[in-house]
Design brief:
The chain is of the alpha+beta class. Helices cover 19% and strands 36% of the residues. The strands form three sheets. Strands 1, 2, 3, 4, 5, 6, 7 and 8 form an eight-stranded mixed β-sheet that branches.
Length: 463
Amino acid sequence: MAAQTYISISELHPNFSHPKLAGIIIGKSDVKSFPDRKNIGEERYTFSFTVQDSPDFFINVSAWGHDAYIIGLSNSFSIGDCVVIENPLVTNKDPEKGDKFCPTTPSLYRLLVSETHSQVRLCAEVDTIDRLLPLIHLPVKDSGDFYSLGDIVANGQKLDGMAINILAAVKSIGELKQFTTSDGRKGQRLEVKLFDDSVSSFPLICWDREAIQLVQTLIPKETVLFIADAKISFDSFRNGMTATVNSKTIITVNPDTREASLLFSYAKEVSDSGALDQDEKPEDVPVDSITDVYTVSQLKQKAQETPEAFFGITYSFISKLDLDSSVSKVIRTRCYSCKFQVTEDAQSCTNQLCPGRDQAFSASTGFDLLVDFTDHTGTLHTCPLRSPVAEKVLGCTTEEFTSLTDDERTAMKWKFLLERCKIHVKILPSFKLKSGMRGMVLACSLADPGEVKQHMSALLQPL
């Protein structure tokens, strides 16, 4: 019943006394300080946040005060929290001053809160929270009003300096970089790689702590973002476009829209297929140039210590190689444009977001195996072994394989199974697997016993 006593954002007016409203935090800035003009030598502290209480209405709120109050208030809630704001000052927007650096809102007003007159607290009423929580998944702009990453790349420097909306999936989240400016201020920077059906990797730069804290909670390859008012810039160092989150940007995580749902399905499919992994940095290097030797446990350890892909050799036993499964589990056909799995006789791609949907359909058929390899330190599970590498390893084409008898396939399997092999691998971070990593087989051959002894004499123990 208490929830009915709140005034809605759409009804706010400067003439109201002691207004009280409830909303969900959809955006929040970092705390900043400025010299206090009235008290020379002292600092005034401030931060802003944006609250929403209905699908169509949200408003900016600014808090001013001394450091303890502002820092304490900022630390008391985060984006996604439901809050109650009591007795804010309702004032007209000033587009040339504070509102110039805040998100664009449909309200004619903004709210000011102060320690003396106002209170902001977390909402504790279940009914109100249940009503507000779904709003966090509604974009603050029209759900169809966005640029694809392909549109941004195609327009290039025409978009330099513009603020636009972007719908994209999260591919990877980089490491937080800390730095100190020339005047002694501390700063931070984090880069997120985005992707969609048109571009496999596009940089999104975050500078504010609040934005960084939000994106660090996201699950790569399982999260879609609607980014309202991202700033687009041409990066001369990369010779390409980048997007930046600033004080006007609002990020909606996993938006409840048709467009986002389609992109989420696409992201899941290409992630499951491993097509994104093939795209990751660093680029594949010639197999002959890979010289570092690891045990399985050392591969796992290094994968935990570095978020980047790396390459290595392991002398391990193939412990799982399902060549005698049904042919459909060994050989798969995928759309050439988007890597979606399709039937062998498909005439078109069934992926609604396929970038090649307006072109003649083309598909490729190849080996698509998941293998395990094991040494005396452990096992690396479900490592993709795909064409054309698989053809070289198995010594046959997909056409030749399909003509083999069951006995011949089993014999081929046992040529490698439980045999010590020299395996060249690319190790990639993977948030979908318990191990946190995925190993891709780049080359595999039966190991020379002398070579094994030379490289692993200090490590080798009975399996």
